[in-house]
């Protein structure tokens, strides 16, 4: 969801989690000249084709290669040494009403953003990963607490 707080959540987690990095999908958009438009003339930023996914995957691979060495020698009881990568992007799953400044072009959300959200959500539901859905009506602080506590519990299992 556009303007849903993904980057803010990721940055807040990074501040609290040692050895944490973020790769943001927003950094991998193709130039505007390469972005297709729909029948209403809206630039199609909410589709994977708008992103340079090869470059993003290369960045993830580089991080994994550079982060791999601490895993072999780390103390199993010390979760602070576990490298954490947060990959954040627009393929998240909740929408709540917001007021934007400047406001979106009339019809953009209903005609493009929401249909793309539904498409991507269906695709993600068909993947067998464990996905935790966040309630976008909760406060930024509540969402942070939920995700932070879940991460700490997962790190403790390592």
Automatic annotation (TrEMBL):
<protein>
    <recommendedName>
        <fullName>Nicotinamide riboside kinase 1</fullName>
    </recommendedName>
</protein>
<dbReference type="Pfam" id="PF13238">
    <property type="entry name" value="AAA_18"/>
</dbReference>
<dbReference type="InterPro" id="IPR027417">
    <property type="entry name" value="P-loop_NTPase"/>
</dbReference>
